[in-house]
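pls ignore typos typing on phone
adenosine-5'-diphosphate + seq
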Amino acid sequence: MANGSILELTGVGRRYNEIGRELVILDSANFSLGKGEMVALVAPSGAGKSTLLHTAGLLERPDSGDVLLDGRSCGSLSDDERTAIRRNDIGFVYQFHHLLPEFSALENVMMPQLIRGMKPGVASERAQQLLDYMKVGARASHRPSELSGGEQQRVAIARAVANAPLVLLADEPTGNLDPVTSSYVFEALEALVRQSGLSAMIATHNFELARRMDRRVTLKDGKITNL
Ligand code: ADP
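k done
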């Protein structure tokens, strides 16, 4: 999918040095995420899903190989350049929401836009639209502690796409939720991704959710392979 790919990992290696042994997590791994594609990353705990997502999301540098975002090689960029790309072009959702506790849901979704230099009025309007889309618009003025787990994750997803990124990376975004809530939150996430033409890679242990995506990949012997 060379032409239509938005995110590419080419020959990516990542290893950790443990006392007495070396852990090889990624070994010349290749992966390509197509534009508008939604891919599930399914692998056992400890297999390296977070490592892969952090490397793809420019939070960690690979030991070898390169990460290309929309055809742009990110391997030799400075830390500042990587930070700018992370801020504008990559949305990240974690298992835990990581919302700022002292700010409202609306303000949390405005924040990435304000950091990017958007006017508060514009940021506020977009934040409310995204919260509405995630069906949590009525809770916009509430702080994270006043929201349910499912609502917190909806806000975190809205925040991740606030700057209209090229790619959404999610690390077990519904892993902390009960099955019913998990399904509702995933439905809203899926609708958002489909409607906006976003590309997404989502780590999940939930096979039912994985089945609903376009493709499933796993990590085996340091390689990323289709399931
Ligand atoms: P997953 O997300 O699939 O559970 P991780 O990517 O978190 O897997 O971890 C893969 C392996 O790498 C695990 O064995 C973990 O202990 C190890 N690991 C992760 N981060 C580090 C680190 N910073 N230093 C050493 N080992 C690490």
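The domain at 37-61+77-226 is CATH 3.40.50.300 (Rossmann fold). The mean pLDDT is 95. more later
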